[in-house]
Amino acid sequence: MADFLRRARRHASFVLGGVLVAVLLLCAVGSLFWTPWPPADIDIPNKLAGASAAHWFGTDSLGRDIAAQLWVGSQNSIVVGFVAVGIGLVFGVGLGLLAAARRGWVDEAVMRWADFAFAFPALLSAIMLTAIYGPGLLISIVAIGIFNIPVFARITRGAANAVWSREFVTAARACGKGAWRITFDHVLPNIASVLIVQATTQFAIAILAEAALSYLGLGTQAPQPSWGRMLNEAQAQMFQAPWLALYPGVAIALSVLGLNLMGDGLRDLLDPRLARSR
Hints:
By secondary structure, this protein is mainly alpha-helical.
């Protein structure tokens, strides 16, 4: 652990990504307890106000504080990211491990299901679910989570197959260990780093997908703030108040950049071959 922390402090991408992700988490957690203004408060006389001491990033077309909306909107990004990636990890990793351990028709069935699932990206799934249940944050989470399952299933199956061909797995079989004992004792610990790196990447994709769904009106609904819906509402004032689109756009870009940089850093730090070269 000490060696990992020492190398992590020297890894510029990991440090910068970690700082950006820490700011995102700090905003999300901090907004649970305090915001500059209540995010849903309407103040028509002060609509489209510029940045000031009272309103740090100005106000929107209804006089709502942009800084408060950004802070509270980060909660949706965190919730969608964690839950959607969690769905992908739980079900996708389970299917991938099953396919690698059983091989044969089980492997073929799981992979063909993954191919079928890829035909329904998060946006298409959200449209179908919205037609049945109506729009909302839960629809975004379910749609993005379903999209993550085949992603993790494929990644897990490929990494697990590589481990199953190693000599120590052959030795474990010779000692009488069963397939599931080998899976949890040897395969899963050896592919954990791959899954961690992939999880950071999917987290960034989940933030983008949630913003896109909210922008289209399929995700988070008013009055709950959302970065994607803030971009949608900013269209009408694009030339009159361009900062309405600038702030949520920058928030999305920095969050995704931070997660991608942290994922790249984790890949370098957790890969033994790359770790030895640093």
